[in-house]
Backbone:
């Protein structure tokens, strides 16, 4: 437990001037923070990549790698991009500020920094980081629950990871915005999380479901949407979760949507989901080779179930990736 008057948080101070570095170190440590120091941008990057850091204070003009460059690297790495970065600089031109914004900096302080202003901004950004960590923890719990549902059926091992990989790749191939590509990656993991409310004897039943059992099973998209709805970070994932069992001619569930009413992200995941189901072993049949799987998917598309354009794109993408893998094996 923290002592009264102390604060939590690890702060990185990067400055090539030892006197200024020590000044910030002593000031922040006196407030109860844990402080780690770096003498240049390369040391700063090494620290954020190997230690847990909640906030980075970077001098702009440093040797080897500037604060601008270090900030850009921190913000481009998925492992560190949520760390708030404050650039501390004696450069006050508009161009320098714009460059800092383009690098992803969360805030700026002029050098020498005012003590009260520095501490106020540190407190504010650490509170923001705390909220971000809570959000990440909540997402982690949901992903764990989703993978726990998958683990109940030995025949679906790796299914979610494959859906995440290929759905995001197909979204990228189609030119979808980055946020929808991320949603597809997350949707691949979370699409069936609502099955946590389905009794296990129904989930793993080898034979056909009774009408009553099917009614229970068909509630899982709505349940999954309800579970994930409180997290705003998953707002683009919700349509995938709710609508990945819809069919173009309107016979799907839970809403009986037709054609373009079904979100493109849901149609993408559905296409990949069908392909993965056909090309992996199931209790009632062996996995189909890809050509046979696509023949069956196209027959079902003729009935109006699936988006033929997406089937075409997926088949081409699978063919290209198989060709690359075969080429690597021959090398």
Residues:
């Amino acid at each position: 437990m923290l002592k009264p008057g102390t604060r939590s948080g690890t702060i990185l101070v990067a400055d090539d001037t030892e006197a200024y570095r020590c000044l910030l170190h002593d000031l922040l440590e006196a407030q109860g923070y844990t402080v780690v120091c770096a003498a240049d941008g390369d040391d700063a990057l090494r620290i954020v990549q190997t230690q847990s850091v909640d906030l980075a204070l970077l001098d702009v003009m440093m040797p080897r790698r500037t604060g601008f460059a270090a900030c850009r690297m921190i913000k481009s790495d998925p492992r560190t991009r949520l760390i708030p970065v404050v650039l501390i600089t004696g450069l006050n031109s508009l161009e320098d500020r714009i460059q800092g914004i383009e690098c992803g900096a969360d805030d700026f302080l002029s050098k020498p920094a005012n003590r009260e202003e520095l501490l106020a901004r540190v407190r504010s950004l650490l509170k923001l980081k705390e909220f971000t960590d809570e959000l990440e923890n909540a997402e982690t719990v949901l992903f764990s629950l989703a993978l726990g549902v998958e683990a109940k059926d030995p025949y679906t091992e790796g299914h979610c990871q494959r859906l995440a990989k290929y759905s995001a790749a197909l979204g990228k191939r189609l030119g979808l915005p980055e946020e929808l590509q991320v949603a597809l990656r997350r949707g691949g993991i979370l699409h069936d999380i609502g099955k946590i409310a389905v009794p296990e004897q129904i989930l793993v039943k080898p034979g056909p479901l009774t009408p009553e059992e099917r009614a229970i099973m068909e509630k899982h998209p709505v349940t999954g949407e309800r579970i994930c709805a409180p997290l705003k970070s998953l707002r683009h994932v919700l349509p995938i979760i709710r609508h990945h069992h819809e069919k173009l001619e309107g016979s799907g569930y839970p809403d009986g949507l037709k054609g373009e009413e079904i979100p493109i992200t849901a149609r993408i995941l559905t296409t990949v989901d069908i392909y993965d189901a056909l090309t992996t072993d199931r209790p009632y049949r062996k996995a189909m080779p890809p050509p046979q799987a696509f023949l069956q998917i196209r027959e079902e598309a003729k009935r109006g179930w699936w988006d033929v354009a997406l089937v075409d794109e997926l088949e081409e993408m699978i063919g290209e990736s198989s060709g690359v893998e075969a080429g690597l094996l021959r090398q």
Q: What stands out?
A: The longest strand covers residues 10-14. The chain has two domains: 10-132, 152-323. The chain has 14 helices and five strands.
